[in-house]
Amino acid sequence: MLNKFKPITPGLRGTVLVSKKHLSKDKPVKSLLKPLKSTGGRNNQGRITSRRMGGGVKRKYRVIDFKRNKFDIQAEVLRNEYDPNRSSFISLIKYEDGELRYILSPKNIKEGEKIISGTNVDIKNGNCMPIKNIPVGTNIHNIEIKPGAGGQLVRSAGTTAQIVSKDQSFVQIKLVSGEIRHINMNSMATIGEVSNPDQKNIKLGKAGRKRYLGFRPKVRGVVMNPVDHPHGGGEGRTSGGRNPVTPWGVSTKGKKTRRNKKTNVFIIKRRKK
Q1: Which residue among 37, 59, 161, 226 is least enclosed by CB atoms within 10 Å?
Q2: 3-state DSSP call for residue 261?
Q3: What is the tens place of the pLDDT at every residue in 44-58?
Q4: Which is the CATH superfamily of the domain at 2-200?
Q5: Residue 123: pLDDT above 70?
Q6: Where are the domains of the chain?
Q7: Which CATH number fits domain 221-261: 1.10.760.10, 2.30.110.10, 2.120.10.30, 4.10.950.10?
């Protein structure tokens, strides 16, 4: 659900934000928090290696259970919470033995619902099991690439992948990007779609809100000097006068930069251009 605002201030004109009415106002569980240090885009030598990072509101990291490796013990969803470190919401769950954990909140999961992880559990929203036991055509998220490593694929808000077919030792999965790839049959995945599908529709409305998130201003290459950028310089307003490139001369706008040849064998169909 989205919140739209009356333009009583310039910053609210056109602002569209995700409603958080259904989320808990309680403080996060202290035992599941870790300190998070901000780098400002700088490496161990103090040099900027990732541009346009810095500032932002201080955060604490919520320890998320991506592995879901507590098998055959039911857990109850205590509440859904906001997490500043990711686009989706998170759910606090309590197992029957009393252990508390945070998980990625599946879409439409409500307080009081029961979820479970295991090899042979029901195909129900929020349940987690090996991919080999999930029927073809089912929507899944939080998918492991290597069995036991924890979910690494399809964790962003509103995303979901689909099981296309099953081979002898691999399952074909269609990812959000359109890429179809092999995943090990014994890898775990969670049933359903990730929460907060309206995240893609938000409009921040003012530059300040972008600064809260840790982003610094972005300066175009064409307004720089020739010493600073290949697009820079020229008399008056120029459009760059060459193919668009990064400050280091690497072609941009469509150039493929993927170098991971080890996993090429697992990709059946590359993502859409």
Answers
A1: 37
A2: helix
A3: 999 999 999 999 999
A4: Nucleic acid-binding proteins (2.40.50.140)
A5: yes
A6: 2-200, 221-261
A7: 4.10.950.10
